[in-house]
Amino acid sequence: MMELDLGDAADRACFDLIHLRAYDRIARACNRSAAEATPVLARTLDALSASGPSDPDAPGDDPRLHPDAVAYVTLGSQLGLTVLRKRIAPDARTGLFSLEPDLAAWKAFLRRIEVTPPSPESAARICQDALRAFDIFLSEADRQLSARRQATV
Q: What SS3 string covers the chain?
């Protein structure tokens, strides 16, 4: 995604489309149940809904993702977006960039994991599922950027 210039509206639209397609797959893989991030996931999908139609070429059902893995990825990613959001003019902050991070949800997630840590087996699954969620983002970036390159050839 390094080829995208987030200062450019068309590149931001591509960025949002990548995220729409990835978050849609992730939401389906966790049955829209993402622990403390469930409302954030729904709000993210809603904010991205204008980015494009559903993808008829989307990969089939992804394997089930643990809700805590989706919470970690969703809540953590929104914190990372605060850095990118600062580079975008306030009137251009649409789609994913229109959302402010839900710090209360992030803190509640961390507090729950600290107070009631998962078993070693669950922790291993959560970590593996978080990596698979990141892989979904990477595969959608590859799909959308490849299609974009093909369209400009």
A: CCCCCCCCHHHHHHHHHHHHHHHHHHHHHCCCCCHHHHHHHHHHHHHHHHHCCCCCCCCCCCCCCCHHHHHHHHHHHHHHHHHHHCCCCHHHCCHHHHCCCCHHHHHHHHHHHHHCCCCHHHHHHHHHHHHHHHHHHHHHHHHHHHHHHHHCC
Q: pTM for the full model? A: 0.92
Distance CA 42, CA 23 (A): 9
Amino acid occupying residue 49: S
- The pLDDT tens digits for 92-133 are 999 999 999 999 999 999 999 999 999 999 999 999 999 999
Question: Rounded to whole angstroms, how far apart are CA atoms 133 and 26?
Answer: 7
Local structure of residue 102 (DSSP, 8 states): -
Contact residues for 32 (Cβ-Cβ < 8 A; gap 6+): 38, 41, 42
